[in-house]
Structures are given as C-alpha cells and as structure tokens.
Amino acid sequence: MTDLVALRALQREFAALEERKLKLQANEKLQAELEFEEKLFALIAEFGYSKRKVVEMLNPPDTTVQAGNARKPREEKTYRNPNSGETVVTKGANHRTLNQWRESYGAATVASWIVS
C-alpha cells in the first residue's frame, strides 16, 4: 500500500508542476526572454563565437589587478641606529633586530630612525 500512496503523491506533484509549467509558458515576459535567448544564440552561432567568448567581451577581466595578488607590495624601509651605526633594511615590521631595538629604545624612537 505504501507504493500506491507514493505513486499518488508523485502524480499530484507532477500535476502541480505541469500546471506551473503552463502558467509560465503563458507569461509574456518569459516569452520575450525566450525569444531574445533564441535570437542571441543564433547571432552567436552566425559569427562563430562561444558563450564564454561573448561573456568575456561584455565583461572583460580587470587587467589592473593580477589574479591572486590584490594587495600592493610592501615598501622597503631602511632604519639606521644612530647609537651603533647599524642599518636594517626590511619590508615588514617584524624584523628580529627591529624588535630588539624597540625593546631597548622604545617603538617611537625606533620609528624616528627611518632613513627611507
């Protein structure tokens, strides 16, 4: 009996979907979209393009940002310790010698040692 109940439920679902399909087919807006799609694919085929090529033409990739590298590169900074004359060139602030200087002299003092 459960198979019969399942069959009846599927038949009701199918009838509801068929009714929805008929309503959509009668929709003028959908008809216009289908006509546009048909003409568009005919035009694409006439000129020998693929759908992907047309999308690339209409929405070109941004050439200013390289894929996978959205951040700009860090600038190189040079610090010169006036006490010892030692120079550190780094792109990041987490440099071993800089951290030691910050502990000894303070962060504000070390920041004032930037040469370039």
Tell me about this structure.
With 116 residues, this protein is mainly α. Helices cover 59% and strands 7% of the residues. It contains 5 helices and 2 strands. The chain has helices at 2-26, 28-47, 51-58, 96-105, 107-111; strands at residues 77-80, 87-90. It has a two-stranded antiparallel ribbon. The mean pLDDT is 88.
- What is the rounded Rg? 34 Å
Secondary structure: number of strands: 2
Strand fraction equals 5-15%
Please estimate the helix content.
55-70%
Alpha-beta content class? mainly alpha
* Helix/strand order, N-terminal first: HHHEEHH
Main β-sheet description: 2 strands, antiparallel
User: Span from first to last CA?
Assistant: 85 Å
What's the pLDDT, averaged over the residues? 88
Give me the side-by-side strand order of the main sheet.
1-2
Uncertain regions: pLDDT < 50 for 5+ in a row? none
Helical element count? 5
Name the shape in a single word. Answer: elongated
In short:
By secondary structure, this protein is mostly helical.
